[in-house]
Write a structure and sequence with these properties.
With 290 residues, this protein is mainly alpha-helical. The chain has a domain of 142 residues. It contains 13 helices and no strands. Helix 12 packs across helix 13.
């Protein structure tokens, strides 16, 4: 459909009045189905190439050729520190405990790759559902939010994959007991890799949440600064929940979380300032009118 015809259809729908509850449900179902279809298509594509994905991407952090290990070792050499910053994971093999475990992990990884890769489209479908209910100035103010949300999500996923995963795997596999062989199950390894990446991507959306709450007046920079110490405790708890039970992983997550919290304060301060300015201008306009 041409763009001008699409705008004409939207205009006609607005002239008809607000949709009923069941019309909203029907419209929501369409958006959910399209988002689910995108996940399925990308998931099937990932499943077709799943062996390559597993060997190169999923199992990458357990090998010494992983980029993080090589980059840190190269930096250590250039800084004249020798091999101080060099580290690699302990050599270990993955085992399967149940029949069909490999197939189930193939399906599990394919599904989550479908969710991650289709994240921008899912956001787009969410925006298409809620945007008709927004005023024109609200739409203008929300311009670019999909791009920022997508960027923050992928930055979080990449941070979990290239930073948290190699450090955590190296640390966890280095802990050993004499006479005990380190051979985790494939299920536990894939579960840990999921915990390292997807929750981190979601947590990186913190500035967007602060922007939205400040936009509607539920959160301000003063409150965030006043409860900074409480927020640090909450962030440490979140880091402990979304990471394996080791100090290294929790620290690697807690540091960027605190940086995101400070960034969220700056975002809330800017939004609150604009909101107060708009309210003052509106009050001045009404007083001049009276």
């Amino acid at each position: 459909m041409p763009l001008d015809q699409l705008h004409e259809v939207e205009r006609q729908q607005q002239e008809k009045g607000e949709m009923s509850f069941f019309e909203h449900i029907s419209e929501l179902r369409k958006h959910i189905l399209r988002a689910a279809l995108a996940i399925v298509v990308i998931g099937i594509t990932a499943f077709v190439n799943i062996k390559y994905i597993f060997e190169v991407w999923i199992l990458g952090p357990k090998h010494d050729w992983f980029p993080t290990y090589r980059i840190l070792c190269g930096l250590s050499d250039k800084m004249g520190l020798g091999t101080t910053m060099c580290f690699t994971p302990t050599n270990f093999e993955l085992d399967t405990r149940e029949m069909g475990e490999i197939l189930m992990q193939y399906l599990y990884v394919s599904f989550w790759l479908g969710v991650v890769c289709s994240f921008p489209y899912i956001l787009w479908e969410v925006w298409r559902f809620i945007s008709p209910g927004l005023h024109e100035h609200e739409r203008r103010a929300s311009r670019g939010v999909i791009f920022v949300c997508t960027l923050l999500f992928f930055v979080g996923v990449m941070f979990g994959y290239f930073v948290i995963a190699p450090f955590s795997i190296s640390f966890l596999t280095s802990i050993s007991i004499e006479g005990v062989k380190v051979s985790p199950s494939l299920d536990s390894y894939v579960t840990y890799m999921t915990m390292f990446t997807i929750p981190t991507g979601i947590i990186f959306e913190m500035p967007i949440a602060a922007w939205f709450l400040a936009k509607i007046g539920l959160l301000g920079p003063a409150a965030m600064r006043a409860y900074r110490r409480h927020a640090v405790v909450v962030l440490l708890i979140i880091a402990a929940v979304i990471t394996p039970p080791d100090v290294v992983s929790q620290t690697l997550v807690a540091i960027p979380l605190y940086a995101l919290y400070e960034l969220s304060i700056a975002v809330a301060a800017r939004v609150s300032k604009k909101r107060e300015l708009a309210l003052n201008n509106e009050q001045k306009r009404l007083s001049d009118k009276n």
